[in-house]
Amino acid sequence: MPTTRPIASAAAKASVLIESLPWLQSFAGKTIVIKFGGNAMVSDELKEHFAEDMVYLRTVGVRPVIVHGGGPQITAMLESLGIASEFRAGYRYTSPEAMSVVREVLTEHISGEIVTLINAHGVVATGIPGDHGLFTGRRLTSVNGEDVDLGLVGEVISVEPTQVIAALDSGAIPVVSTIAPNVDEPTQSLNVNADAAAAALAVALKAEKLIILTDVPGLYADWPDTSTLVSTITALELREMVPTLSSGMIPKATACVDAVEGGVPKAAMIDGRVPHGILLEVFTPEGVGTEVVPNERG
Question: Is residue 148 part of a domain?
Answer without folding.
Answer: yes
